[in-house]
Amino acid sequence: MLELIIDAVLVAGDLFDFAFKANGRNERLLEASQGPPEQVQALRRSGWTVAAALAVPALLLALVIGLVALVVAGLSG
Asked: Which of 40, 62, 65, 67 measures 20 to 30 Å from 56, CA to CA?
């Protein structure tokens, strides 16, 4: 109930979820139901691959936005 109330506030809800680690409980339940440890390890490796594949373009986009902001600031200063 407390989580539902705090989640109603946009940023506070996200920070609370991060601190409360409600997803950690769900992850433990999911891992317990997935089968042998070898299979779980393979899923973790593929998860890191997906995370890296999403992180690289996000970092490049942030770099481009930062460079554009620097150029705009330089031209207006």
From this structure: 40
**If we measure between CA atoms, which residue out of 43, 20, 19 comes closest to residue 31?**
43
pLDDT per residue as tens, the chain (77 positions): 665 666 666 667 667 666 666 667 777 777 777 767 666 666 667 777 888 888 999 999 999 999 999 999 998 86
Q: What backbone torsions phi and psi does residue 66 show, to the nearest 5 degrees?
A: -65, -40
- Can you spell out the DSSP letters for 3-33? HHHHHTSHHHHHHHHHHHTHHHHHHHHHHHH
CA distances from 36 to 26, 42, 45, 57 (A): 18, 10, 15, 33
Torsion-angle region of 62 (φ positive above 0: left; ψ -120 to 50: alpha; else: beta): alpha
